[in-house]
Amino acid sequence: MLSQEDNDILCQVGPGTPMGEFMRHYWIPFAASTELPLDKTAPIRVRLLGENLVAYRLNGGEVGLIQDACPHRGASFFLGRNEGDGMRCIYHGWKFDREGTCVDMPSEPPESNFKNKVHARAYPCQERGGLIWTFMGETDILPPLPDIEANAAPDAEVTQQMMRKCNYMQALEGDIDTLHFAFLHTGHLEPGDAALDGNMLDIQIHNRRAELDVRETEFGTLYGASRPAGYDMDYWRIAGFMFPFYTLIPPGKLAANRWTRAWVPIDDENTMFFHMMAPPLGDADVHPESANVDMRFDKGQELLPDEPWNFHGRARSANGPEIGWGIDRSLIDQRISYTGLPGVHLEDQAVTESMGPIMDRTQERLGTSDKMIIQTRRRLIKSAKALRDKGISPPGCNRPEIYRQRSGGILLPEGVDWFEASAPFRKAFVDHSTETIKTTLGSTVS
Ligand code: FES
Ligand SMILES: [Fe+2]
Question: Is the pLDDT assigned to residue 199 strictly greater than 70?
Fold first, then answer.
């Protein structure tokens, strides 16, 4: 439960709000590279941290990001003429370069110096691993992009992008809520359904509850959730939160996984989700949890056609709240799903959107399984207040190296300190042999 004041601090991301200012200290991924093809000049409307912007591709392949409304009389640059070295407003022909400098004002007399006094808000962009990033804060020296392996590895890509119709934190909390996997996504399975030597899903079905231990780290928060795995071993699902809106999720093998997810606030009530990943290391199966069960990872992810003129028109789910998230309760009767929702991602989408655009956290009742969520909110609120009240720099915004993290499942002997014992496997940009990967999560899993 949060006070209304703290919930507002957590959820509000517009200019001038504590969390909005906090997030503007970090690089922010806002679009997939494929949204701005190299051979196309057409701009797209982008809403980001509550600001209306227009993104476009420049001649050299760089990306420009400029305020939507022309500084003259507010016509949208979505209608603008992308001239390859800047954007020209179609209303009276004023032109602005990548930095937002007015470089041409043909509607004013040639001797006028008015153009030197007019500037458009424009943000620097960088591109890496299939994602376009921007920095919206005020700074003389830009920090480097975070060392997120799932985006920085040479074989990194964005494998999923989808808008979520709710606040970023509500969506993000689903990723750090490990317990729901055994209910929302697999509650229809019974002990034996996933039985297969070395299949970790079977362990979760036998023990839907888990022991949760949460640690504070310099990058954010990390949890280990354990269940007995037999043979004096415990199965640990290890996952985390990285400032300001990234999640590390727990399926797969810790030693092999290279993935990170971003929950980027479009505004207070909408979020853009990006799943970044590089292929798993070794030749072991990335989803040992689902070795012999159809987990429906690929179902229910259909998108509506993009509307680049619409600030909320990109990567929209075709199964939104307008159609009841496509629920089909015959799937429950057939024991295909616990929910009647066709896919795993859609199940996450439906429950978080069903709470409304901004969850009223003054009304919730948290249990022991919510420890990670409680700690993560606390960290975020505390850090945003520390910036607002004391000018303390947001954690990690100038330290790209702290983002070198991996998450996933691992078998550890009973009684060991999971945080210490898993440390070598949580380090990103480290290669492990297939043999090591297999021995950390069941040697019989192939
Ligand atoms: S409104 Fe853009 S040039 Fe006049
Ligand atoms: Fe989920």
Answer: no
CA 345 to centroid of ligand 2, rounded, Å: 7
Q: Which ligand is nearest to the CA of 118?
A: 1
Residues 6 or more apart in contact with residue 357 via CB below 8 angstroms: 165, 166, 167, 268, 269, 270
Whether the per-residue pLDDT at 340 is higher than 70: the answer is: yes
Q: What is the pLDDT of residues 85-103, one digit of tens each?
A: 999 999 999 999 999 999 9
Alpha carbons 314 and 330: distance in angstroms, whole number: 31
Length of the chain: 446
**149-440 maps to which CATH number?**
3.90.380.10
For residue 75, which atom of ligand 1 is closest to its CA?
1
Residue 302 confidence class, pLDDT cut points 50, 70, 90: very high
Beta bridge partners of 101: 119
CATH architecture of 27-135: 3-layer Sandwich (2.102)
Ligand 1 in contact with 382 (CB < 6 A)?
no
Tens digit of each residue's pLDDT (9 = 90 or more) over 114-157: 999 999 999 999 999 999 999 999 999 999 999 999 999 999 99
Is 75's C-beta closer than 6 angstroms to any atom of ligand 1?
yes
Q: What residue spans define the domains of the chain?
A: 27-135, 149-440
